[in-house]
Every structure is written in structure tokens, then in C-alpha cells.
Amino acid sequence: MSPPPEIMVETIFYPLIEENTLKVNVSGIGIQDFEYRLDQNPWQKSNLFSNVSKGEHLITVRNLAGCGVSSIRKIVMDYPRYFTPNGDGYNDTWNISGLDNQPNACVNIFNRYGKLIKQFNPSRERWDGTVKGVPLPADDYWFTLNYIEPKNGEIKSFKSHFTLKR
Questions:
Q1: How many CA atoms within 13 Å lie on the side-chain side of 18?
Q2: Does residue 22 surpass a pLDDT of 50?
Q3: Which CATH number does the domain 6-76 belong to among 3.30.300.130, 2.60.40.10, 2.60.120.560, 3.40.120.10?
Q4: What mean pLDDT, rounded, does the chain reach?
Q5: What does the alpha-carbon distance between residue 13 and residue 50 come to, in Å, rounded to a whole number?
Q6: Which fold has domain 82-164?
Q7: What distances in angstroms separate CA 1 from CA 42, 60, 122, one per listed residue?
Q8: Which residues contact 138 (CB under 8 A, 6 or more apart)?
Q9: What is the pTM of this model?
């Protein structure tokens, strides 16, 4: 009897398309046949999960030869590449979604010169493009996200940028 499979999960996303895909990579001893499950959904033969919602998910893999079951948690998060805070009710605020189960997550937003202009918890707040009520100019802004990786409890950091359009 061989040990349970080892699981690695890769998030595949396409900018500006609201579709996240998880690809499950499995390693184990010998040639094996696996089934895959996302959360409590039915088992499937494919190692790809499409249209995965944002948030934390449990991916489970089982060996059909009866050699074990393994699970791993994965956070699917995303952020808008731009936002337009013009009061029309559409794209008026900016936030990173999928972090509802991360009460200690922290987003830091910086201007082009590296000055910190906003710090907030993405599970409780959104940014409206202002500092002390004053609208900031259309420009690119950079951010860092600090969160806890659910599979091992490590503090992780993600950095990227977005555009504020007026």
C-alpha cells in the first residue's frame, strides 16, 4: 500500500475575466488513478475546476486504488485591475475579494512615489479613492496584501498594482 497522494494547487486566472480555475497537481508512487473534489461537490476525474468562486476552498484527492485521501485548503482571491470612483454605483470602490475568512488581512495602498496613502482590512472595508475625503487623481497605485496562508499558517505577502480612473 502506498502513501496518500501529495497535492499542489495552482490558481489560473485571466485578467479582466471573472473566471478563476484551479489546477490540481498530484504526485505519488507509481501510476495511479485519482478523483478530485472541490469543497463538498461531487467527485470528478478532471484535475481542473473552472468558475471557482472567490474565498477559501477545500480540495480533496483520492486514489482509486484505495491508497489514501489527501486534502488541501486554497484561497482564491482577486482584485479589480481598475476602478472608477465617479458615484455611478459601478466600480466606485476598490478591494481584494475572497478574504472573508481572513480577519487579520491587511492591504496597504501606495502612490507612485511609494507613499502609503491607505491601510485597511479587506474583509471589513473598501477604498473609495480618497484620502481624508479628498479625491486622489487618476493614476496607477500599488498595493501589498498581507494574509495568512491557510495550508500552513504562514504570513504571506502579495504585491501588485491597479489604476484609478476618473
A1: 4
A2: yes
A3: 2.60.40.10
A4: 88
A5: 10
A6: Immunoglobulin-like (2.60.40)
A7: 26, 19, 45
A8: 163, 164, 165, 166
A9: 0.75
